[in-house]
Amino acid sequence: MTRIQELVCVCRLIILHGYKDCFKFETNNILDHELISVAITVMGEIDSEGEIEVLENDIRTLRKQLQEKVQQLKALKKHFQKNCITKLNNDEIARYSRQIILSEIGVQGQLKLKKASVLVVGAGGLGCPAALYLAGAGIGRIGVLDYDEVELTNLHRQLLHTEATVGLTKVVSVQSYLEQLNSQIEIETHHMQLTSDNAIGILEQYDIIVDATDNVATRYLLNDACVMLRRPLVSGSALQLEGQLTVYNYRGGPCYRCLFPTPPPPETVTNCGDGGVLGAITGVIGALQALETIKIILSNEGVLSGRLLLFDGQQSAFRNLKLRPKKPTCAVCSNEPTLTALIDYEQFCQMKATDKDTALELLKPCERISVREYHDEWISTGRQHLLIDVRGANQFEMCQLPGTSVNVPIEDILNDRRTGEIMAQVEHTKLPVYVVCRRGNDSQVAVQHLTALFRQHNLPAPRDLIGGLHAWAKTIDPNFPIY
Ligand SMILES: Nc1ncnc2c1ncn2[C@@H]1O[C@H](COP(=O)(O)OP(=O)(O)OP(=O)(O)O)[C@@H](O)[C@H]1O
Ligand SMILES: [Zn+2]
């Protein structure tokens, strides 16, 4: 019998007869003390492994039970919030006292806020201040929806995100801030892109929707879904030093489609990344979105429906424009709508429903050059050419491609303010022309415009740098600043 066989035999004996009884078999001369002690150690390890497995199973079961309880609690809270709220607790009385004493609110108004649910779509420049004031005011359930993660470029205006939350999802960043601000309310997160497939299912869980997004496709999507679900839509926008605000689909007022039946051409749309925005402007508009939402919940007078509020931050001036009334032939909100289900909004608008990687394709491949090709053929060889950077002067000052480039902002090209100067230079030097911008969209628009002019003078067409400075930073120079 080998030593291993002996060991197995002892283990069996320990299992069958127990440790003490093993010694009875010692007379058989099969066993010795050393063997027994090894067997006991092995058995001990087997025992510990068994214990670990049992504990792991216990923990799995407990976790499952905990999850079930959390779900039960959530459902119960929702039910309670909707149906059983009849008074405020002491903490709530103290917390909201400064607004409860307003004649427009009172205890009944505060209870209405507590029973209400609001979905803030977009946790950026507008969504942050809107969600902040809604949470502060005691809206019982706030949903925050955003697909994005926090970036450094967000922090100057998206005031619920911090250096510590850069890289986290925006919804988690907002949730953790708001939960610290007000533990009496419920914050729900939806980390996803709002699309035609998920919009109805999510929006129907809330009473009022706040549009704090930044793109046309999502605006149409939110509008149509809100009309179909009969939800008011508190819509805001902010760019550079200006902001706008209105409430759609509220008590017979117009919807977004009534006013804008067709989307604008993609090349006319500017976002904060290209046009810039001051944080305080988004702060003003986001705070006003919270105000309109609160007025709707309270059924107060003066809701901004059928009117558009324009804010000029440069002049510190507010203007109120009367909007056209609801359109009797509106495709979605009229009595006989032609649009009764959500559509493909990216296709409808010819624009992405995100402002990330929105890449226009206005030019033929032969009118474009990759950054790699441009680098290898023109920059590293030092060959003479003319590079026109069509970004604004401030952006040009922030960073430039190596070599000499001339800065002619896109507006100056499209308005032919400086095209004469470019033409003269090219006619004189006969240099090939390349055009660059931040992400490769404006440069295409500029190339389209310049090509027509160049043709008239029999000059070779200019070419666009595909993907602009972003592509350069990604492919050629990782140390090039991205903004
Ligand atoms: N369809 C959508 N689904 C989910 N979130 C969306 C959708 N469209 C836009 N958003 C979100 O709306 C927010 C708009 O805010 P804002 O424009 O201030 O932020 P940003 O896109 O991070 O800014 P920047 O343009 O400077 O990069 C963004 O966080 C964006 O992710
Ligand atoms: Zn309409």
From TrEMBL:
Which residues does ATP bind? 125, 146, 153-157, 170, 214-215
Q: Which Pfam families match?
A: Rhodanese (PF00581), ThiF (PF00899)
Q: Detail which positions bind Zn(2+).
A: 255, 258, 330, 333
What keywords were assigned to this record? ATP-binding, Coiled coil, Cytoplasm, Metal-binding, Molybdenum cofactor biosynthesis, Multifunctional enzyme, Nucleotide-binding, Transferase, tRNA processing, Zinc
| Keyword Zinc in annotation | yes
Q: Where in the cell is it found?
A: Cytoplasm, Cytosol
Pathway assignment reads:
tRNA modification; 5-methoxycarbonylmethyl-2-thiouridine-tRNA biosynthesis
Which GO terms of the molecular function aspect are on file?
adenylyltransferase activity; ATP binding; metal ion binding; thiosulfate-cyanide sulfurtransferase activity; URM1 activating enzyme activity
The biological process GO terms on file are: Mo-molybdopterin cofactor biosynthetic process; protein urmylation; tRNA wobble position uridine thiolation
- PROSITE patterns per the UniProt record, alphabetical: RHODANESE_3
Q: Outline the extent of the Rhodanese domain.
A: 381-481
Cofactor binding remark: Binds 1 zinc ion per subunit.
> Active-site residues?
272, 437
Q: Which SUPFAM superfamilies match?
A: Activating enzymes of the ubiquitin-like proteins (SSF69572)
Gene Ontology, cellular component aspect: cytosol
Give the E.C. number(s): 2.7.7.-, 2.8.1.-
Q: Which residues form a coiled coil?
A: 45-83
Q: Which SMART domains match?
A: RHOD
Query: Major location, coarse class?
Result: cytoplasm
Cofactor (UniProt): Zn(2+)
> What HAMAP family has UniProt attached to this entry?
MOCS3_Uba4
- Protein family membership: In the N-terminal section; belongs to the HesA/MoeB/ThiF family. UBA4 subfamily.
Task of the protein? Plays a central role in 2-thiolation of mcm(5)S(2)U at tRNA wobble positions of cytosolic tRNA(Lys), tRNA(Glu) and tRNA(Gln). Acts by mediating the C-terminal thiocarboxylation of the sulfur carrier URM1. Its N-terminus first activates URM1 as acyl-adenylate (-COAMP), then the persulfide sulfur on the catalytic cysteine is transferred to URM1 to form thiocarboxylation (-COSH) of its C-terminus. The reaction probably involves hydrogen sulfide that is generated from the persulfide intermediate and that acts as nucleophile towards URM1. Subsequently, a transient disulfide bond is formed.
Name of the protein this chain belongs to = Adenylyltransferase and sulfurtransferase MOCS3 homolog
